[in-house]
């Protein structure tokens, strides 16, 4: 039974490498081959599978924002004005990720009617004269 030492492993050629395990970024790919000689004829210690790292273009990173702040106070103490609210960019987009939408919003506000100051009365009185 010394024959077993002299019979080499019979192996099929390696298969093509598989596709990368990811569609973007870092992944793995593998290839296989088959044992063609009968196992009884001796131990075959050759590897039947290989794996290696593969790298595809970076995955897109989409913009991420914080929640909106509370609306600010109205910027006037009487009459028409505006108030704003803001949000911050947590993650800047990269590699074709979605762009960031607006980070400031503005809306109209109206506080009680302004009372005419004494200066207004004087002017009107002069015009009337």
SSE blueprint:
Blueprint (H helix, E strand, L loop, with lengths): L2 H4 L19 E7 L16 E7 L8 E2 L13 E8 L2 E3 L12 E8 L6 H11 L1
Antiparallel strand pairs: 1-2, 3-5, 4-6
Protein described:
- InterPro entries: Spondin/Thrombospondin_T1, TSP1_rpt, TSP1_rpt_sf, TSP1_spondin_dom.
- This is SPON1 protein.
- Residues 63-114 form the Spondin-like TSP1 domain.
- It comes from Climacteris rufus.
- By secondary structure, the chain is of the alpha+beta class.
- It is 12% helix and 27% strand.
- It has helices spanning 3-6, 118-128; strands at residues 26-32, 49-55, 64-65, 79-86, 89-91, 104-111.
- Strands 1-2 form a two-stranded antiparallel sheet.
- The longest helix has 11 residues, at 118-128.
- The protein is rod-shaped, with a radius of gyration of 38 Å.
- The model has no long low-confidence stretch (mean pLDDT 85).
Quickly list its features.
129 residues; alpha+beta; TSP-1 type 1 repeat; two-stranded antiparallel sheet; two-stranded antiparallel ribbon; 2 helices; 27% strand; rod-shaped
- Secondary-structure-based class equals alpha+beta
Query: Strand tally, please?
Result: 6
Average predicted local confidence, pLDDT:
85
Number of helices: 2
What ranges have pLDDT less than 50 throughout 5 or more consecutive residues? none
Q: In angstroms, what separates the terminal alpha carbons?
A: 134 Å
Give the oligomer, counting copies of the same chain as homo and different chains as hetero: single chain
Q: In which order are the strands of the major sheet placed?
A: 1-2
Q: Specify the CATH class of the largest domain.
A: Mainly Beta
Q: What is the count of structural domains? A: 2
Q: Give Rg in angstroms.
A: 38 Å
InterPro entries: Spondin/Thrombospondin_T1, TSP1_rpt, TSP1_rpt_sf, TSP1_spondin_dom
Domain Spondin-like TSP1: 63-114
Keywords: Disulfide bond, Glycoprotein, Signal
GO cellular component, one term: extracellular matrix
């Amino acid at each position: 039974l010394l024959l077993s030492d002299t019979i080499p492993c019979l192996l099929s050629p390696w298969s093509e490498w598989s596709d990368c395990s990811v569609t973007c970024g870092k992944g793995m790919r593998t290839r296989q081959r088959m044992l063609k000689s009968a196992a009884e004829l001796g131990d075959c210690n050759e590897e039947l599978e290989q794996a290696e790292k593969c790298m595809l273009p970076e995955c897109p990173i989409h913009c991420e924002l914080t929640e909106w702040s509370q609306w600010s106070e109205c910027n006037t103490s009487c009459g028409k004005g505006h108030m704003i609210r803001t949000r911050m960019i947590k993650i800047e987009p990269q590699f074709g990720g979605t762009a960031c939408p607006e980070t400031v919003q503005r809306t109209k506000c109206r506080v009680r009617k302004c009372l005419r100051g004494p200066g207004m009365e004087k002017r009107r009185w002069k015009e009337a004269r």
